[in-house]
Amino acid sequence: MIETCDVAIIGAGPAGANAGIMAASQGCHTIIMTSKQCLVARFGVQK
Q1: Burial group, residue 32, by CB count within 10 angstroms (0-12, 13-18, 19+)
Q2: Distance between CA atoms of 2 and 27, rounded to whole angstroms?
Q3: Quick check: 5 and 27 in contact, CB under 8 A?
């Protein structure tokens, strides 16, 4: 399956998470790539 997006962010630390939130709030289809599963559980981010 190929998925397209407007913004792809690698890393979900403070800067990456903030960049993803800001891009999504502006209407961009945003993907945050991280090796940690905690982002989904802690912030309610969709998989």
Answers
A1: buried
A2: 20
A3: no
Can you tell me whether residue 9 is helix, strand or coil? Answer: strand
In order along its 47 residues, the chain shows pLDDT tens digits of: 787 899 999 998 889 989 999 999 999 999 888 886 655 555 555 55
Instruction: Give the distance between the most distant pair of CA atoms in the chain.
Output: 29
d(CA 11, CA 27): 20
Q: Which two tokens stand for residue 46?
A: 């969709």
Q: Are 10 and 16 in contact (CB under 8 A)?
A: yes
